[in-house]
C-alpha cells in the first residue's frame, strides 16, 4: 500500500476540537498542519467515440459514483438502510459522510463535504474520438487517500461501462500525483503498476505573498454562494473569504491529520478591509440531469475575473489552499474552482 498521507500548513492558529466526537489520527506533525490531502491527475485514453456535455463535472461525478458503488458495495440491492455494513461501508464514507458530532454548528450540515473533488476537463468541446486522451484532476482528503486503489479500480470499471450519452469506452492510461508544480507517476495502466509515493507537503505561500496588497481571482467554474436562502449574484471579498474559511475548518474537522481545528477569527478583520477594484464576473447558467432525483437541476453560478485590494498578506495561505479545494456549493462536481493570477 502506498504511503500517501500528505499535510497542509496554513497561517491560521489552531485550537483543540471540542469534545470527543471527531476521530482524528494520532500524528507527530507540526501543530499548525491541520488537513491532509493529495492531488492526482487521471489520464483516460478513449477507445470509443464519446459525447459529453459542455460542463463535464456532473457526468464524471455521476458515472464515477455508480462505478464506485459497484466496486465496493457488498449489497447489490441498492438499499443502504438495511445493510449491516453501512456504518463501515467505504461507499457511504466517501459519498454520504456525516457531519462530525463534535463540530460547532454540526446541525447545519445534513451531509458533510465528501473527501474528494473531481475537477473535470474545462474545455467546452463535446465530441471526442478514439485514441484521444481526457485528463482531469482528482483530489482525495484524509484517510480516503489510502483508498486510492479502490478509486483506480472504480475508474477502470467505469472505462468498461462507458462514459457519456454514447457510453464511450476508455482505458485508465496513467495517474500522477501533483506535488507543488511537478507531477510524479503513480499508476501505469499498461502494466497495472501502482507505485508508492511520499506524502505531499503543500506549500501554501509564494514569494511576496506575505506583503501582498492586490489580487485577481479567475473563477474557472460556476461559484455558488448562498446568502440566507438566495444565491449571491455579486461577490464581496469578506463573504468569499468567510465561506472559504468555513469550508476549510469543516474539512479539517472531518479529514484533519491532528486533533486541532484552525482558528481563523484573527483573519476576519483584514478580510473585512479588502475591497473590490475590478469586477468582470458574469452569471453562467448550467443544467444537469440528476439520475437519483430523475429531474433536471440548475447549477448556475458566477464566473470570470474579479480583482481586490487590501491587507491580503495574512489571508494568502487560505486563498492558496482554496485554489486546490474550491469554495461554495457542489464542490464535488468541480464547482467553485478558482485561480489566483500570477
Describe, in plain words, how this protein is organized in 3D:
- The protein has 342 residues and is α+β, with helices and mostly antiparallel strands.
- The chain has two domains: 38-201, no CATH class; 208-340, 2-Layer Sandwich (Alpha-Beta Plaits).
- The protein contains six helices and 21 strands.
- The strands form seven sheets. Strands 6-8-4-9-10-11 form a six-stranded antiparallel beta sheet, covered by helices on one side. Strands 17-20-13-21 form a four-stranded antiparallel beta sheet, covered by helices on one side. It has a three-stranded mixed beta sheet with strand order 3-1-12.
- The longest helix has 19 residues, at 237-255.
- Low-pLDDT residue intervals, each spanning 5 or more residues: 1-32
Shape: globular
Q: Percent helix among the residues?
A: 10-25%
How many DSSP-defined strands?
21
Rg (C-alpha, Å): 20 Å
Distance between the termini: 37 Å
Query: What's the average pLDDT?
Result: 82
Largest sheet: 6 strands, antiparallel
Please give the order of strands in the largest beta sheet: 6-8-4-9-10-11
Task: Put the structure in a nutshell.
With 342 residues, this protein is an alpha+beta fold.
Task: List its salient traits.
342 residues; alpha+beta; Alpha-Beta Plaits; 6-stranded antiparallel β-sheet; 4-stranded antiparallel β-sheet; 21 strands; 20% helix; 31% strand; globular; disordered N terminus
